[in-house]
């Protein structure tokens, strides 16, 4: 089986099937898929610069309809799902995105009247 065939097979798997595959590989070869932890002298973990950010909607503000429209545009959710997300604020709109994307999403939501923070 070639590498391309393996990748094609993986593309059609569900998340549960992928999880089972990873566990089977770990058991078969005695390895782990967990990322190694960097340790400095003294035992403290290194503090790396944050590369992934979450965009949190704190409040929809006065123009809730405009915020729902922007949330739909950003997330691709349907009207009901976007409304439920906005109604359930504070909620994460986008998670683990690059700083530039997080700032762009924040700017769009603030322009629509929402109170937003990037963590």
Could you describe the 3D structure shown?
- Residues 3-46 form the Large ribosomal subunit protein bL12 oligomerization domain.
- Forms part of the ribosomal stalk which helps the ribosome interact with GTP-bound translation factors. Is thus essential for accurate translation.
- Keywords: Ribonucleoprotein, Ribosomal protein.
- The protein is elongated, with a radius of gyration of 20 Å.
- The chain has a 3-stranded antiparallel beta sheet, covered by helices on one side.
- The protein is 49% helix and 15% strand.
- The model has no long low-confidence stretch (mean pLDDT 82).
- It has a domain at 53-118: Ribosomal protein L7/L12, C-terminal domain/Adaptor protein ClpS (Ribosomal Protein L30, Chain: A), CATH 3.30.1390.10.
- The protein is α+β, with helices and mostly antiparallel strands.
- Helix 3 crosses helix 4 (79-87).
- The protein is built from 5 helices and 3 strands; from the N terminus they run H-H-E-H-H-E-H-E.
- It has helices spanning 3-11, 15-29, 64-75, 79-87, 99-111; strands spanning 53-59, 91-97, 115-118.
CATH superfamily of the domain at 53-118: Ribosomal protein L7/L12, C-terminal domain/Adaptor protein ClpS
Strand arrangement across the biggest beta sheet: 2-1-3
Order of SSEs, N→C?
A: HHEHHEHE
What's the Cα radius of gyration?
A: 20 Å
Between the first and last Cα atoms, what is the distance in angstroms? 43 Å
Number of strands: 3
């Amino acid at each position: 089986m070639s590498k391309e065939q393996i990748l094609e097979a993986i593309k059609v798997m569900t998340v549960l099937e992928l999880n089972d595959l990873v566990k089977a590989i770990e058991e078969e070869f005695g390895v782990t898929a967990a990322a190694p932890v960097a340790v400095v002298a003294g035992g403290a973990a290194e503090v790396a610069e944050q590369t992934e950010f979450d965009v949190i909607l704190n409040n929809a503000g006065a123009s809730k309809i405009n915020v729902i429209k922007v949330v739909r545009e950003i997330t691709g959710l349907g009207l009901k799902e976007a409304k439920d997300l906005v109604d359930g604020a504070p909620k994460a709109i986008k998670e683990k995105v690059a700083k530039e994307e997080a700032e762009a999403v924040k700017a769009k939501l603030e322009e629509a009247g929402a109170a937003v923070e990037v963590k």
